[in-house]
Amino acid sequence: MTTSTHSDLPVVRADSYLTLHYRIVIESGPAAGSAFIDTFEGRPATLQLSSGQWSPTMESPLIGHPEGDCFSYTLTPAQAYGDRNPELIQRVTRNMLNEYTEPDTVFTPGDMVEFSAPNGGRYSGVLKEINDETALFDFNHPLAGLTLRVDIDLLGVL
After folding, report:
1. Which element (helix H / strand E) includes 58?
2. What is residue 6's DSSP assignment?
């Protein structure tokens, strides 16, 4: 009978395909301590490294870890989703909002609203406030400006 050593296990490379459980925990700001996403209670996730699913700075701490490893790492705002950009908080007219969203859409502050832009692109923003004439949106990523902890359980490495 042979025993497996740590060196026999596949190790994460820059092009690896992973099966993993992960949790992204907000470490700063008003929601500190809460999980933004958590797959530990459900089905594991899959992740193809270097495919754009995660940013390179989120992927790089995975490199070199063997299959079966459980670990955590912390990302500063700059390493995760960037700092909050005040230029991405924008006011739009109600006419423009109505023109580029589905008819009869009801808007409530706090909603994530997706709409088409004049150039054909799609944009999502969190509605901050709305009145009869304008609506104020925050187009920053919801995790921008926050320090994050990422908890990993590497189930499989291909």
Report:
1. helix 56-59
2. G
**Residue 70 forms beta bridges with which residues?**
153
pLDDT tens-digit series, residues 95-108: 888 887 778 888 89
Beta bridge partners of 19: 46, 156
User: CATH code for 86-138?
Assistant: 2.40.10.330
| pTM exceeds 0.85, yes or no | no
**Is there a contact between 157 and 67 (Cβ–Cβ < 8 Å)?**
yes
Contact at 8 Å (CB) between 17 and 154? no
* Secondary structure letter of residue 118 according to DSSP: T
- Spatial contact of 11 and 157, defined as CB atoms under 8 Å apart: yes
So where are the chain's domains?
Answer: 10-82+143-157, 86-138
